[in-house]
């Protein structure tokens, strides 16, 4: 199993990223997605495999991410932008519950947008399937979502219905069934 990052480790790494940006007189912005957003903003997990994010300025931040990794002993991909291919142009972001720094502005998707992303991922059988399901349940509880209709309406706020694959439909049904089981 790959190494994981705790909330404290992520905060230390982001703080060091900020310090190195400040040394270069560069202001950066980062929007954190996935498990790292669940760890930092929702305290829904103890750890995550990596920090999925989009960031600017890309070249400066990417170089510093490697420096941070070397300095504190993380994988060089501890922060990566692999999530960028899965995002919606209609995405909504907030800085709520995220750490802020002098030279690094940190945001995350809103709970609704993060839920839509988690449900669209529907990584059935993949490494993160159980965590995706747990994350989706946490977000549904937070948003008061208890039906598949409302879950699909949340997805459709950010993604066209035509992009919803059968695996997402099954995943939504599983999530809502498990959520309602736990409520009973």
Can you tell me about this structure?
The protein has 184 residues and is of the alpha/beta class. The protein has 2 domains: 5-109; 112-183, no CATH class. The protein is 51% helix and 14% strand. The chain is built from 7 helices and 7 strands. The longest helix is centred in the last third of the chain and has 18 residues, at 166-183. It is elongated and about 50 Å long. 38% of the residues are buried.
Radius of gyration: 17 Å
What is the number of domains? 2
Count of discrete alpha- or pi-helical segments spanning 4 or more residues:
7
Largest sheet: 5 strands, mixed
Q: What is the end-to-end distance?
A: 34 Å
SSE map:
Elements: E1 5-6, H1 7-23, E2 28-33, H2 34-40, E3 47-48, E4 51-56, H3 58-72, E5 79-80, E6 93-94, E7 104-109, H4 111-121, H5 129-143, H6 148-158, H7 166-183
Helix pairs in contact: 1-3, 4-5, 4-6, 5-7
What keyword list fits this structure?
alpha/beta, two-stranded antiparallel sheet, elongated, 7 strands, five-stranded mixed sheet, 184 residues
In short:
The chain is α/β, with parallel strands linked by helices. The protein has helices at residues 7-23, 34-40, 58-72, 111-121, 129-143, 148-158, 166-183; strands at residues 5-6, 28-33, 47-48, 51-56, 79-80, 93-94, 104-109.
């Amino acid at each position: 199993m790959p190494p994981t990052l705790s909330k404290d480790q992520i905060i230390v790494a982001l703080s060091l990223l900020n310090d190195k940006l400040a040394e270069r007189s560069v202001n950066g912005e980062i929007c954190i997605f996935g498990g790292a957003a669940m760890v930092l903003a929702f305290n829904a997990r103890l750890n995550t495999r990596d920090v999925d994010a989009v960031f600017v300025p890309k070249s400066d931040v990417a170089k510093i991410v490697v420096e941070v990794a070397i300095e504190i002993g993380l994988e060089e991909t501890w922060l990566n932008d692999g999530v960028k291919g899965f995002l919606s142009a209609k995405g909504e972001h907030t800085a709520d519950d995220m750490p802020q720094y002098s030279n690094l502005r940190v945001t995350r998707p809103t709970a609704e947008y993060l839920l839509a992303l988690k449900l669209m991922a529907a990584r059935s059988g993949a490494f993160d399937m159980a965590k995706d399901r747990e994350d989706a349940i946490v977000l549904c509880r937070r948003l008061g979502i208890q039906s598949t209709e409302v879950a699909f309406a949340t997805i459709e706020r950010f993604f066209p219905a035509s992009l919803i694959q059968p695996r997402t439909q099954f995943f939504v049904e599983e999530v809502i069934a498990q959520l309602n089981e736990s409520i009973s």
